[in-house]
UniProtKB/TrEMBL annotation:
It is an enzyme of class 1 (oxidoreductase). Its EC number is 1.2.1.3. This is aldehyde dehydrogenase (NAD(+)). Residues 14-468 form the Aldehyde dehydrogenase domain. PROSITE patterns: ALDEHYDE_DEHYDR_CYS (PS00070), ALDEHYDE_DEHYDR_GLU (PS00687). It comes from Flavobacterium araucananum. It catalyses: an aldehyde + NAD(+) + H2O = a carboxylate + NADH + 2 H(+). The active site is at E244. GO terms for molecular function: aldehyde dehydrogenase (NAD+) activity.
Length: 471
């Protein structure tokens, strides 16, 4: 059994001063895989102090130096591909398919960062003045478990581009993945203190990062509830915040779409990462007069969706990360039933033969209206709500009738029509006839899906403070 008792401060693996342990539990078997020591407030303060000291020099490094550091990290990560994928599969139940894609995105985030350094001008002229885009300072990076190393790589690489130093608090549930990335970052030979990583609880390590006056900015990915707590705390010291929060993304299938392609895509959008994705397309909006056809297609696809051990290449839906998350999803399925929605496929309980793990039956509700809780709240599991609409206008109205606005999907064979609909949806990203990622385009949410954007120039500028020299 593994015991992870080291955290990473000022270029060294050191033993945490925490005294409590957190059990690492397999989502497939619910057996204990290991344990991680939970860092405390003092550990966090030491990490922040190291980042603060290093900022004095790292903020002055050249573009060429930063590019070299990014390349070094990428090289170190490239060497351990299998371990990255396997640990992700084992530790949180991400499917082999998803873990492999995530690994590729992780590596690509360094290419995007290098691209930014090669193209971004940190000195601009605005009006009569010289405007210097200066690094903000120490950045606190607080992230969830559902794509832990992906978030570390995208946020840390942007911080390096900007010349900021960092203190990272991953989820304690990702301790083994964190150990691996820390080893790679260590190997990359960055100046001591550029990145510091403290395992521990949100209420302790996360709270210290959010309140400490020496942290200039928080880049947070996680739930809307915790995002609000962090933003309230951050305002006391006027920290900048970038908040990537939850979603309840609509997927509009227009009547002229190719249903044989759009419906399978809709199922993938809903069940990606076992349904534990902020961008999951969890509200499927279909024309009322095409419902029977949609039902038939969904039944066919979902009954052929393989649920099971995430290690198997063909598995499309693995277990929920924890028993707690399993219970949460069960609770929402019950809420749907109680609200009067009808289960088309799936339902309560575990699939046969998978009773040991946190497996959920991929579920689709029909007869859902947009006022129901299953249409309004983020479930974070493989549960899809089908909602019918009569007109295009109604489809847009339903799509926008949500407190969220992270992502949306539109399917139509008429590109102009799809573009026109997409332009009317209030979401940070709208996917037309597909599911893609553009690492140089902004990513983030409207409304309660967050504040600010990541990726590309807009993402970078959230790590910079403009300074105008007026002559
Ligand atoms: P979460 O509970 O909000 O936790 C996220 C992180 O915040 C964890 O590291 C957590 O620590 C920490 N935290 C908890 N309480 C805190 C506090 N009081 N102060 C500071 N930090 C605190 O989210 P989750 O359940 O792990 O992840 C799922 C959520 O993330 C979903 O809502 C999903 O939509 C969202 N998400 C958003 C995006 C996006 O890009 N928009 C991407 C992925 C996921 P602990 O580990 O101790 O809880
Ligand atoms: Mg949590």
């Amino acid at each position: 059994m593994k015991t992870i008792d080291k955290i990473y401060i000022n270029g060294e693996f050191i033993t945490s001063q925490g005294t409590e342990y957190f059990d690492l539990i397999s989502p497939v078997t619910n057996e204990k895989l290991g344990q991680v020591i939970l860092g405390n407030q003092k550990d966090t303060q030491n990490a922040i102090a190291a980042a603060k000291e290093t900022f004095k020099t790292f903020s002055k490094t050249s573009k060429a130096e930063r590019i070299q550091y990014l390349k070094n990290i990428q090289t170190a990560i490239e060497k351990r591909k299998e371990e990255f994928i396997n640990t992700m599969v084992e530790e949180y139940g991400g499917t082999l398919q998803f873990a492999t894609i995530s690994y590729t995105y992780m590596l690509k985030s360094f290419d995007s960062a290098i691209n930014l350094l090669n193209t971004y001008d940190f000195t601009k002229t605005m009006g009569e003045s010289e405007v210097q885009m200066t690094p903000l300072g120490v950045v606190g990076i607080i992230i969830p478990w559902n794509s832990s190393n992906g978030f570390i790589c995208s946020k840390l690489s942007t911080a390096i581009v900007a010349g900021c130093t960092t203190v990272i608090k991953p989820s304690e549930m990702s301790a083994q993945q964190t150990q691996l990335i820390t080893e790679c970052l260590h190997e990359a030979g960055l100046p001591k203190g550029v990145f510091n990583i403290v395992n521990g609880l949100g209420e302790i390590v996360g709270a210290e990062i959010s309140s400490n006056p020496d942290v200039a900015k928080i880049s947070f990915t996680g739930s809307t509830n915790v995002g609000k707590i962090i933003a309230k705390e951050a305002v006391n010291t006027m920290k900048r915040v970038t908040l990537e929060l939850g979603g309840k993304s609509p997927n509009i299938i227009l009547d002229d779409a190719n249903f044989a392609e759009a419906i399978p895509l809709a199922i993938s959008a809903a069940y990606m990462n076992n349904g534990q994705a902020c961008i999951a397309g969890t509200r499927l909006l279909v024309p009322e007069n095409r419902l029977e056809e949609v039902k038939k297609l969904i039944k066919e696809i979902v009954s052929n969706t393989i649920v099971g051990n995430p290690k198997n290449e063909t598995t499309a839906v693995g277990p929920m990360v924890s028993n707690k998350q399993y219970e949460r999803v069960q609770n929402y399925i019950q809420i749907g039933i109680d609200e009067g929605a009808e289960i088309l496929i799936g339902g309560l309980g575990k699939p046969e033969g998978l009773e040991k793990g946190n497996f959920v039956k991929p579920t689709v509700f029909i007869n859902v209206n947009n006022k129901m809780r299953i249409a309004r709240e983020e479930i974070f599991g493989p549960v899809l709500s089908v909602i019918t609409y009569k007109t295009e206008e109604e489809a847009i109205e339903i799509a926008n009738d949500t407190t969220y606005g992270l992502q949306a999907y539109v399917s139509s064979l008429n590109e102009k029509r799809a573009h026109k609909i997409a332009s009317q949806i209030n979401a940070g990203r709208i996917q037309i006839n597909g599911i893609g990622h553009d690492p140089m385009a902004p990513f983030g949410g409207f409304k309660q899906s967050g504040i600010g954007r990541e990726f590309g120039t807009i993402g970078l500028e959230a790590y910079l403070e403009p300074k105008a020299l007026i002559r």
